[in-house]
Amino acid sequence: MSDCWLRVSISRQQLELLEGERVLQCYPISTARNGPGEQEGSGCTPRGRHCIRARIGAGQPLNAVFRGRRFTGETYSQALARTYPERDWILTRILWLSGCEPGFNRLGTVDSMRRYIYIHGTPDTEPMGVALSHGCIRMRNADVLDLFDRVTTGTAVVIDP
C-alpha cells in the first residue's frame, strides 16, 4: 500500500486511511481536550504534515498496556483500571508520529516526536468523537489494530484542524 496515507480531522474527530484520494477506511477518534496546537507542554494535538516514525507493539495482544513505549506485560481490564485510576492508558498498538514541517511541528519546542504524539488504542469505555486526550490521537483497540496492519513506517499523516 505504498500510496496509502492518513488524514486526521480534529473538527470531525475522524481518521481516514486513503489510497491516493480514495478513502479505504474511516475510523472514529478522540484528539486533545485542549484542541489543536503544536507547543510542547500544551496538551494539544499538533497539526500539519507528519509521518509514522515508528510502529510499536506488533505481536502483542489486544488491550496490551504500554508505558514509555514498552509493553508492561499487562492486559487492560476494569480491575487494572481501578488499581491505577490516574493512568492515561496507551493500549494495543502505538504509531509514533514525527512532524515534517521544521518550525511548525518539527524541531525546537514544537517537535511532535519529542512531544511523544502517538496514534494509539485506549480503553473501549472511553468515548470516540469527543476530544478528550492529552495530545495524542486515541482509537478503539480493534480499529488501531486494523490500522497498524495497513500502514508502514514512513506513511504520511496529515492532521487538519
UniProtKB/TrEMBL annotation:
SUPFAM superfamilies: L,D-transpeptidase catalytic domain-like. One of its GO terms (cellular component) is extracellular region. GO terms for molecular function: glycosyltransferase activity; peptidoglycan L,D-transpeptidase activity. The keyword Hydrolase applies. Pathway: Cell wall biogenesis; peptidoglycan biosynthesis. Keywords: Cell shape, Cell wall biogenesis/degradation, Glycosyltransferase, Hydrolase, Peptidoglycan synthesis, Transferase. One of its GO terms (biological process) is peptidoglycan-protein cross-linking. CDD domains: YkuD_like. The keyword Transferase applies. InterPro entries: LD-transpeptidase, LD_TPept_cat_dom, Transpep_catalytic_dom. Pfam families: YkuD. The active site is at 120 (proton donor/acceptor), 136 (nucleophile). Residues 4-160 form the L,D-TPase catalytic domain. Belongs to the YkuD family. This is Peptidase.
